[in-house]
Amino acid sequence: MFDIVGIGCSCYDFLGISSVSPNIDGKIRLDRAVSDGGGMVATALVAASRLGASVAYLGPIPGDNIGGLIKKSFDIEGVDIQYCKFDPNAKSHISMVMVDTRTGGRTIYSSGSREEYFMPEDLQNDVIQNARFLLIDGTYRAATIKACNIAKEFGLTIVLDADDRLANDPDVYDLMGLVDIIIPSNRFITRLTNETVAEKAIAKLKESISSSIVLTLGGNGCIISDGNSFFRIPAFKVDVLDTTGAGDVFHGAILVGLMHEWDLIQSAKFASAVAALSCTKLGGRSGIPTFGETIDFLTDHGVKNE
Question: Which CATH superfamily is domain 2-9+40-89+117-297 in?
Fold first, then answer.
């Protein structure tokens, strides 16, 4: 039914861009301001949809005003939400993002979500059974574990977006044990392993898990380990305006590569191109390219994806 199903974080972002750093009790004028849907799994699904995949989001859609904007952002991007829980009592997850024009880096203030907004009984099994890939980020943990168990029973490839907030989770190794591919951030793997050298951190993590690892390093690209070897992919050079959502976009794009039955290295090169292009515009989603635009970009950089 769907190529990719995702369960995890969905929020709404309010972004401001400025070359001036804020001070306590100060006031600055923004150069630009935008708002759009956000969240790790949610933005990954939007990226995958824009790249041609059929996708569905599993999670709560709050009944407040922001929830209406979240729903609209999914509808516009072709993300199926018929299996969500529409909850009039839930409060939307909101992020306030300050983007520095000098570096493209950003500071995020996030309200978070609550576990009880989406529980195992809210999960409809058939949407997972008929998919090819399941993307998770650890949000709504009990429902996520149930989704993973269903996915394993029906042979889906399970991918975990592991950001730094998971590093202090006492159950993180149990969660990683359920998945086929882990895509950790550098901060996650450094905090979890206490290793600052990327290859050493990956090797240490591989002592405890059997999953393939794609370590994302931001502007330094990514490293893939599908066993005992390492393959480093440099980041593509673009004029960076805003890095918001680039990692989330990478996760959605790498699944699209796997959907096309490319290997993990080829899929990661494709995802790196998509993530780079997404950084050229303000906001986590406005810069996400189409499949054709990405292939053209790769061709211009001497990379063939067939």
Answer: Ribokinase (3.40.1190.20)
